[in-house]
Amino acid sequence: MTLEPAPSRWVELVSERRARVPAWLEPSAASFRAQLGVPPGPLVMSGHQAVLWHPGILAKYIAADACARAAGAAAAWVVVDQDTPPPHELSWPMRASATSTRVVIGAHHFEYASPCNAEVPACARPPLVASANAADDLLIDPAGALPSLHSAVNSASNSPNAAVQISRVIESLLPPSIAPVPAFFATLIARTEFFAAVVRHMQADPRRCIEAYNAAALAHPDADIRSLDADALELPLWHIVGPRGLAARHPVHASQLPSIPTHQLAPRALLMTALLRLAACELFIHGTGGVAYDRVTDAWIASWLGTDAVLAPTALATATLLLPLDAAPEDPLTGEAIMAQRAYREALHKPGALGEHSLESERRSIVAGIAASPYRSAEREHRFRDLHRLLERYRASHAPVIEARRLAALAARTSAKDRAASVRTWAFPLYPEPRLSRLCGDIHRAFAQASSCSRTSSTAGVPASGSPAAPSPAPSADVGRKAST
Are residues 384 and 431 in the same domain? Predict the structure, then answer.
């Protein structure tokens, strides 16, 4: 598992309560937590899409509870129900055929209770119904999870939508050692006064918001955040409209905003975490992907809203658990796939990755100039267009090499996926309960130790019976580092 920074620092960050909003947002921010249904005091928050998580996501869930207990705070989990991952399709290890011993990545499918289009967000998908599939006899089920999973899905089939149903299924399938964390749904954010106030501010000067967003995305290319369409004044919002099973997410442009009811809007990823970190929590826990995304969020909000807006800090929690499959041990191709994907992204965004050092220097200079230029200034717009022209020229002149790296990344990822024993992203119910309980125990012990060290440190300066204060015990060398579970 990985907990970064050290858990003792997490506890300190919660107690510091650093987040704040500009004065003009304070009235609406004061009611934000109540309207979301989360507690008003110190709060540790995390979240994920409405799918059955893998153990890396489960580590965030456990860490939210463990940190909250150590810090004397509450915990909350945001269900990202405006997103579109398919909850009906579940990866599952299986034999390649009835006579084969080769283990491959297969799938188990649920059905929808009523028709559902492919790109419908989770908040508008109908509930799922679980039944036997034709290929179920090939599935490998180390924890005997399939019957309990079917039962949990069907027991929650009266849910209003798939997002609510999956959330209920997750809670029902948690091992007894893992405490449930109170959840709320991200689409609720659009029904708050705080969201409405931020959207009004966005609408008053959309170009300033968009330019700050795009400059932040370009300054952190490794996060792979797509820039907004500045010419069309595209905003970081979704418009979700349509009946259940047919609803779709549409991009929102500034000219459309007055005609869209606020309750039909939803924040995109960066805006969602920005709002929650501004006014709903003291610490937000991410996985590896979210940490990269929120570097963009930090830069965007600082540039757009200024120094009066201070986001709650973030922390990282993740874990790697492999299933006990009768197959080869972890394959190095998983690492190769990550390296190949990184090489492709760098080739796409950084001329220096392909030896164009003068162009790379020019790119860095332009990005720095964008950040330093006044909002809505001709100089800022000119430099922004210069950056796009530079990248377009560079990509056109190196198109064959960039395409080769893209294909290499795709091939490495496909090859890695063929090795089921090295996959870390199976849904957590597939893992034997002792493994999940051990992960839970490891995380809680890390925070219990952090809490103990913090209490000892706070009293170490008060001598007992006139004797000198004893030094505080040093934290374990493993805390805050990667440790194999």
Answer: no
